[in-house]
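User: Fold this one for me? It's Aminotransferase.
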Amino acid sequence: MPTTKPELLTNLNSNFAKLTPGGIREFDYKASKISGIIKLTLGEPDFNVPAAMKEAAIKSINDNDSHYAPGTGTPALRQAISHFMRDRYSLDYDPNSEIAVTVGATEGIYASLSAIINPGDEILITTPTFPLYMAVTKILGGVPVEIDTSTDNFVLTPAKLQEALANHPHAKGIILNYPSNPTGVTYTESQIKSLAEAIKATNLIVIADEIYSELVYDGQHTSIANFIPEQTLILNGASKSHAMTGYRIGFIAGPQELMKSVSAIHAMMVTAASDPAMAAAVAAFDTAEGKTATLKMKKAYKQRRDFIVDALKHLGFDITTPNGAFYVFAKIPAKFGKDDIKFATDLANQGKVAVIPGSFFGAGGQGYVRVSYATSMDNLKAAVKLIADFVKEDN
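Assistant: Here's what I get for Aminotransferase.
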């Protein structure tokens, strides 16, 4: 086994030193080693990929669809995405110049931020939120500015945005993730319209991560691009809505002038997504089977949400009921204090249930845990019994 020459370690990207060690995957990995553990950790749908998507991928393979695709994705998939955005959200994007297919929404995050960040640029990030936004911003030499929304039911208000801009007048962009990971909270149409009006008066570039947009339980998802398309890059994909996490298909949509830079960076990073996965995504975004499959999953998720929210509230957790995604962000019972990392660690080791500490999600997350209900109802019922035993014990 080779050993790195010690002197080389000083030649690495110095921005890595700014990253916080640990995180969701590491906690999940450690918890996975505990015998008998029930994991409510990852945002991994427990459904199988719908048949129409699998059949499309198999056909692609059998048809020897194995050559380089255009960097922004196959014309068929970009057309399907354009139809999906128009059908679901009344948004009009040119498939030839305003859409790029990415290797999951994760790559979309990196490509979008790479296109706008120069060293020292500030990026406003509403928290608690998916920690990758902060990590990528730091790696690129940017400065994440966290806006804690925990006192406003996890929704960014125009007043709080104005306060952040007053303190950071040269901020380059803002990241909005809704429905939210980790809170499951989303914005009403009036809330997102008010926020858009405040942003319109600025030169902020909005990166709207709407990967959970199809999983809104009451009402409909409203994209901020319905109000300020000229300032917005939308991230979305098939992972959450169609249980296609392993296929790694995401996309970015935005105005042509912004998409030129984003698409160029994307192509330099990965060239293009794989042909069979893109063929499957066409079936996801542009067929009746794809739409039906999502609605079936959403119905199951809503039943699980209702169960887990009610159960945890009865056990002393304080919860803002989520209206989207498949997470509950629960404030731990008062007797455990605010050390969510200790609580989650003890719950895993002693209670045999794994959840994610809220502190991993930035400002406002301390004292909370994220509970994923992207698992079976049987698992959720068993987990609730174990959590009940844990919280009722004298700790």
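One thing worth pointing out: The CA atoms of residues 13 and 139 lie 8 Å apart.
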